[in-house]
Specification:
The protein is α/β, with parallel strands linked by helices. The chain has 2 domains: 217 residues, P-loop containing nucleotide triphosphate hydrolases (Rossmann fold); 116 residues, Magnesium chelatase subunit I, C-Terminal domain (Helicase, Ruva Protein, domain 3, Orthogonal Bundle), CATH 1.10.8. The chain is built from 15 helices and 11 strands. α1 crosses α2, α2 packs across α12 and α10 packs across α12. It is globular. The two termini are 17 Å apart.
């Protein structure tokens, strides 16, 4: 491995990421894990779903992030009466020349806030699929490319059921990370109450210029992930699939499956496991974790730290899991415990 101290690019990227955290901290009290997850998604080029009860600063985090990024920002408030055309745009008729022309929707931006995404029906949610997966939108017969970078940050409320629509698995899989926004500690909440100001009025500096973002992506491409780490990543994802044991599986998966069956057969709680897209996402996010630690190589600890955010929304749990009160996080944590570490 190269010596990180002699690589100015990695040192510069570390400073950029640290400065981004400092700027976010001017408005956000605590929530370091959420902020780090958002930064991870930006550097890795993925989308983020923030889930938490009302009042935990989900929207504030996204707005503050847009201010320090300097990216073009648009917000869509998802409601039950929203239509796909309200999101991606539609064809408008010009009576003077007798032709149709595209009227582009708010999805044509760099940073899109999909606020309370689960309040809109499936036909509206699915309108984002092409944009999130391929960076393009089709209006009529014409396909329009979206701006680079294109970054979706969505929020949803997990406790409200009336007037909401669960995101389909295909939509969830498009999100690189699903981050749970938790309550602040007592000390953090005291700081929030004492502040008494509108956080959005606190000035912040732009950190992620186009040049800085390119530097981060260039450093990410130079982070090395050893074959043993890749095998570890693939094994973690493969063991979530109940049908894996019926096929030829890597030795690491077989060992973990045997340990799980001997101790606690948690695989019965999973109906469908994560896809290869999860393996790619886990590798990318582990590399970004290495950048946070000023390393140009990935450690198993980087994979473990990213695993919950990458995998929790990609597992389809069985009815038995719901009956026993078993969460995806609990299953992933046990798999990490049983999986042999390289």
């Amino acid at each position: 491995m190269s010596d990180i101290k002699k690589n100015p690019l990695f040192l510069e990227v570390k400073d950029i990421l640290d400065n981004a955290k400092k700027e976010m901290a001017k408005r956000i009290v605590g929530q370091e894990e959420v902020v780090e997850g958002v930064l991870t998604a930006l550097v890795a080029g993925g989308h983020v779903l923030l889930e938490g009860v009302p009042g935990l600063a989900k929207t504030l985090i996204i707005k503050s992030f847009s201010d320090i990024s300097g990216l073009d920002f648009k917000r869509i408030q998802f409601t039950p009466d929203l239509l796909p055309a309200d999101l991606v745009g539609t064809l408008m008729y010009d009576q003077q020349n007798g032709q149709f022309y595209p009227r582009k929707g708010p999805v044509f931006t760099n940073l899109l806030l999909a606020d309370e995404i689960n309040r809109a029906p499936a036909k509206v949610q699915s309108a984002l699929l092409e944009a999130m997966a391929e960076g393009q939108v089709t209006i009529g017969d014409t396909t329009h490319l979206l701006s680079e970078p294109f970054f979706v940050m969505a929020t949803q409320n997990p406790i409200e059921q009336e007037g909401t629509y669960n995101l389909p698995e295909a939509e969830l899989d498009r999100f690189l990370l699903k981050i749970l926004v938790n309550y602040p500690s007592a000390e953090e909440e005291m700081k929030i109450v004492k502040n008494g100001k509108d956080p959005l009025k606190i000035p912040v500096n732009i950190v992620f210029t186009s040049e800085n973002l390119e530097k981060c992506k260039a450093a990410l491409s130079k982070v090395h992930c050893d074959d043993k780490i890749i095998e570890y990543i693939v094994s973690l994802v493969a063991v979530t699939r109940p049908e894996t044991e019926k096929k030829s599986a890597p030795l690491r998966v077989s060992s973990a499956t045997a340990s799980i069956k001997k101790g606690d057969d948690i695989l019965r709680y999973i109906s469908f496991g994560a896809s290869p897209r999860a393996s790619i996402a886990l590798c990318l996010c582990a590399k970004v974790q290495a950048l946070f630690e000023s390393r140009d190589f990935v450690l198993p600890e980087d994979v473990k730290k990213a695993a919950l955010h990458v995998l929790r929304h990609r597992l389809v749990l069985s009815y038995e899991a719901a009956a026993d009160g078993i969460s995806a996080d609990a299953l992933i944590s046990k798999i990490l415990t049983y999986m042999p570490t390289p």
